[in-house]
Amino acid sequence: MSKKNKPLDLDSLLEEIETEVSEEIESERIEKLTPQDRLLSEVASQILRLERDMTKPGQAVQDSTRIERLAKFIDEAKF
Amino acid sequence: MRLLSLVISDFRGFYGQQQVDFAADDKKRVTVLHGENGAGKTNFLNAIHWCITGKFTPRFQDQKLLVNKEAFKEGRRDCYVEILFKDEESSGGKQYRVRRSTTNEKQISFEVYEIERGNSKLVDRGESLIQLLLPPGLISWFFFDAEAIGSLELSGSEEFKKGLRKTLGFELIDKLLVDLDAVQAKIRREVASQSNDKQLMALQAEMDNIDRVLPGQEGTLEALQEKIKSKDIQMSQANANLNKLPQAEPIQRRRDSEENKKRRLEDEHKLLSAKASILVGRAAPALVLNDLTIKLEGKLEDQEVKGRLPAPYSDQLVKDILDLETCICGRPLKEGSHEAHKISELLKFASTGVLNQRISDVRYLIRDIERNASEFPVQISEIRQKISSTDREIAKCEDEIKDLTKQLQGIDVSEIQKIEKEYQQFKRELISLNQQLGAMAQQIDQNKRRYKDLKSQHESASRRLKVSEKLKTQLEKVVKLTDYIRRSLQDQEARALNILALELNTVLEKYLTKHYKAKINASNYAVQLVDDDGKNVGHSTGEGQVLKFAFIATVVALAAKKTQEKIQWMTEPTIAPLVLDAPFSALDPEYQGSVAKNLALQTTQLVLMISSAAWGEKVEAALDGVIGKRYLIISQEAGPQGEKPVKPLTIGDKEYRLNSYGAKRTQSILQEVQV
Q1: Mutation target among B91, B180, B471 for the A interface, most CBs of A within 10 A
Q2: B241 close to B419: Cβ distance less than 8 angstroms
Q3: What ipTM does this complex have?
């Protein structure tokens, strides 16, 4: 199969580098945390994602349902 | 989101159906609309704002007169705006068409269509889709009425802080924290009911009561803030109306300037008071300890004079005697002998390097406390003097304002008196609203403090009681996670403000001729421009105006995550066009070019509505190469020209006319100029 020569897309390349760098910075930040804080950081990110999904415009759930789900999530999370 | 085109039909000054195509390339991303005052720039901005959000910018007047007057006379009763936009490539690159239509009385329809291979498909819950792409909290930053740039409050109001928090992506975390508090409350209720303890139940009942009342109080607070905002706008409009009247103009201008001065002084007063209380807090330990340290130093010196502290012999001397087994008088000293034992006991009291260091540390500490104890009162008294002098200045301003108000009321022109009466009425209403706001804020604060207190009583009471381990663990876990998130949020907030300040300073460094820097107060988000010596530079100066434009561009870049550093936990990036109405008229000409350049650099798509007065070579040169589309908003008047002027606009080597007379009807015409 012949490989087509694509023009160099500088913007996407820069974006890719930028994403990689910020991912690296983030993993460095997590490495610096104590094991307990690392665990909490992970759980905090997960619960924030859950909150975001439950409050998305058009997909928002009722307040009471949201509180129930958050309580259940914390109960089941190991930290 | 990138705007592709807009169709406007019988909306305000735009008669019939007219279309604008926007520049939406990564490179050619700027659309410029040239129009004189009153030509329809604000109407155009509001057409976009309204079509997308259903609302108008705060200064948009006569919101119930939307249908074009000429069209209305001809029997047409509705108007519409339709926008074609596309999602970012990274989010799928889908195209959508939004259409909103209304009569002067009520909205008729709002529809969002997804366009796929030329076919339109109606989107279910279109409002939600738009809110996802452009969160309501961010709209005022993206569709910005730059005529209001002068009143952009960078001095740290609660509303400003709230808006900025939304932009930085903290709204979701704030919401999560409120929900986690609700989870805690839920578990506490279970604890109370399981324990069946009277005290715990009573505490829980009081907490539930506050929980019930607080959202309502916070809602009232927000409503009051909204009312104050619109009252402020009404007041400044009355002010502007007074400014237009020749008899009142000079007095009104002086009163305006006095009121601005008073506001600035009041800000300064707040800042100084905050500084004073910090200083008093820092001074208190030094002042309390000073008496004790004087006594301690006396004792220290006494012991030194007596040769007891440190001991007149060192540990090394004792060790040498023991090693050499010879006393300093020459007598032999055998290991294990009574004499050797006596001498080795001297080691307990001998001076050592560590002991000497400790004594000298204590001396330094005493000196430090003494110095602070003598310096703090001077500093505090200096700040108090500054506060009193600010108070005197404020009182002077108030007297001057009263005097000018009397003069204005004394002018025997009914129009002036009518507007002035209106102005005074707004002012009274504003004072009353501010009082209500203060009272409500105090009630909320009291309730929050009481809740905190009840919570800790609840915690200690429930520890004593027999409650299942499962419930206790559940509660502990929620508290632990909430505390962690709250702690992390504070770190992230500090980091976000730091990034904002860094980005702002990069812009200021590049574009300002003076070496000014922006500082952001972490507690109230106030943004202050300071000079080389750290002194505050007013927001009304030319540089202050640049700061405001730089601030808007940076906030938009932050929301789109276009900044170099990222903030953890920020919500999804919001990529949307920055639409600015009449952006440079408030700016010093020397900065117009650099501000234009920065706006184009920091945004993914830029729509500028600009008058000929604010358009010059520097702006033209700054936007060279990035303008993809260009339109004139021509103001056509049905009446004869008479003595009235025609406003020309030169672009390159061509001259265009921005207004004309003797037209078939009075209207605004959108005319494309080839780039």
Answers
A1: B180
A2: yes
A3: 0.75
